[in-house]
Amino acid sequence: MKQTLEIHDLWVNVEGIPILKGVNLTVPRGEVHALMGPNGAGKSTLGKVIAGDPGYEVLRGQILLDGEDIVELEPDERARKGLFLAFQYPVEVPGVTIANFLRLALQARRGEEVALGEFYGKLQRAIETLEWDEAYVTRYLNEGFSGGEKKRNEILQLMVLEPAYAILDETDSGLDIDALKVVAKGVNTMRGPNFGALVITHYQRLLNYIVPDVVHVMMDGRIVKTGGSELALELEERGYDWLKEEVGA
Amino acid sequence: MNETVTSLSLEDLLRGSERRGEPDWLRDARERAWQIFEQLNWPTRKNEAWRYTDLDPTWFALDLEETGPAELRQRDELPRAVRERLAESDAEAALVFANGRLVHAALPQELLEKGVVLGDLHAALRNNADQVKGALYQAVTETGLQGPEDKLAALNAAFWSYGVFLHVPAGVALETPVGVFHYASEGGKLGLSRTLVTLGANVEATLIEEYLSPPLERTHVATGEFLLGPGARLRHAGVQTWGAGVRHFHRQRALLERDAVLNDLAVNLGGSLARTEVASELVGPGADSEMLGVYFAGAGQHLDHYTTQHHVSAQARSDAYYKGAATVNGRVVYQGLIQLEPTAQKTDAYQTNRNLLLSREARAESVPQLEIAANDVRCSHGSSTAPVDEEQLFYLATRGIPRAQAQQLLVAAFLEEVLGRVPLERLRRHVAHVIEARLGG
Ligand SMILES: Nc1ncnc2c1ncn2[C@@H]1O[C@H](COP(=O)(O)OP(=O)(O)O)[C@@H](O)[C@H]1O
Ligand SMILES: [Mg+2]
């Protein structure tokens, strides 16, 4: 079995307007790739399309999860196959507690009951790693959370659900440096041969703590450059304009 | 005037009353109600209170379900659906009616010693004659029925065939709920039940009434009369979980004397068509009526609710909060009326209705109304209907939760605001399970 998340020639419209224009990208398990690019390049769109957001129209292309095309699958089916999206803007769900929801999600992912003891054990470890307060899990999902709390909650879910592939969309935005370190620690505990990640970020800052194996740059709906972690530093120093000129975007 | 679509007649009425050995006053009251029933037209959508619900008179042209002497059985000989509910219920005192006949009665000795009466209304007419005579038809009268919207109340007043009597003497507090289960398994019947509750001063009691059956074609018309003495506190839940095909019509009215407190919960989940009318009459200062409702309409279901908060006395409080959801082509209706007499100064009265729609074809109608004839009052009302949040569904889906289960979570979360106010944990769980089952997944 192939152990990659592969995007092939992906074209996506939103309300008739082309947003992704032939994206090609491969993230193998065991690697962390960064996806950078200016605002409006289409990074979040790519994340949502991979996760199966019904609001986007896929015109062409394939999304291969371990070799299987998942373009036609519902978002929950994709998640159960091992995909996870940490949202740029996590959704508030009043009335549904984190603990209750997360246990259901874990059971859905595994396709079987998960004993309370095992579940709380996992939850406990994740909370400790994230230096969080246990009281949060009895609160309603993201309701009234600050931007930083929402991001931490996304990583909590990532750690409990243990997906094969995670897309983290601007998990660093809205975090102070301490929170950033903690969130990075959470992601780094996930790293290993069975886990691949695509870390979407605007800034190099997060990549000091989650050091990527590969860096991709997206502009105007395409991957225009791919390199090593030094590419992120270069972008930090020089901005995106030189690259725009170089690729003629 | 009246299309003679029912198989009922005055002769039937008189014969039935005689056969059951009813006292003259009751026979006369039934006859008065019959006269009114005969005169009134059936409600149509032209009647404001029935604007969103079609009623077909042939639904009442079914075979009237006659009651008979109690056939008491042990718990383990009861229909399975009832046994399961009894096992899951906190009720220690319980009555079970099957097809209009009392089949099980459990009344702890301790309650008997305190003077609590719980039983078949026909038996109470013999054993507690004066109590029943002074109370029956007081909250839902047999004569003050004036328009088409009262047609079914008149039908029930004339022909009710079985009933419940709960009396708790002054000062007695019941520690556990009383359960009444209305079970039906025979199709093609018209069932008519009447529940009479009289609470003396400073009583505390909880009554849970459940309606349950397998899927079948049947019509049930229920009436509830609650008389709350000064300082009495009644928590009541009416839980309608009839099987598909059943039509359910329910009128309930409570009279609250000084400092009496009613906490009512109307749950409408079953049947094909249900019309539930819940009214509180605040006749003494300090009275407090909370009327809660939750409902969920799935394929082919039409669930209609009407609440009335009638403030006669000054310095009383009332709050109606109904929340419900509909999916597939389910329809839900809420109409509510806050009515303040000129005497009702210093009233606090609130009314809220919120609906959640899970599909394009699902529909909700919501009509809150105020009629205020006093000036020194605090009143508010609000209503809203919204589709389920697709972003929330997507978010939950990206965690692997299937759509049906995500909908269950969101519906439960939506109803939590109302159910969270009801301190009957096992009942709340039951309601949640029934809704989950309806949503599948
Ligand atoms: N749901 C949407 N409706 C309309 N336009 C959208 C929607 N999502 C994204 N877009 C547009 O697509 C482009 C890419 O947006 P996005 O993927 O959020 O970029 P990035 O995450 O790289 O900043 C932007 O021009 C944005 O306005
Ligand atoms: Mg973005």
Can you describe this structure?
The complex is a heterodimer of chains A (249) and B (441). Chain A has 8 helices and 12 strands. Chain A has 249 residues and is of the alpha/beta class. Chain A has a 6-stranded mixed β-sheet with strand order 6-9-10-3-11-12, sandwiched between helices. In chain A, strands 2-1-4-5 form a 4-stranded antiparallel β-sheet, with helices on one face. In chain A, helix 5 (147-161) runs parallel beside helix 6. Chain A is globular and about 55 Å long. The N and C termini of chain A lie far apart (37 Å). The model of chain A has no long low-confidence stretch (mean pLDDT 95). In chain B, strands 1, 4, 5, 7, 9, 11, 13, 15, 17 and 19 form a 10-stranded mixed β-sheet that branches. Chain B has a 10-stranded mixed β-sheet with strand order 3-2-6-8-10-12-14-16-18-20, covered by helices on one side. In chain B, helix 1 (10-19) packs antiparallel against helix 2 (24-39) and helix 2 (24-39) packs antiparallel against helix 7 (151-159). The longest helix of chain B is centred in the C-terminal third of the chain and has 17 residues, at 403-419. The radius of gyration of chain B is 21 Å and the shape is globular. The model of chain B has no long low-confidence stretch (mean pLDDT 95). Chain A binds chain B through residues 51-55, 74-76, 78-80, 83-85, 87, 90-91, 93-96, 101-102, 104-105, 108-109, 140, 157, 161, and chain B through 389-392, 394-403, 405-406, 409-410, 412-414, 416-417. Magnesium ion (MG) is lined by residues 43-44, 88, 170 of chain A.
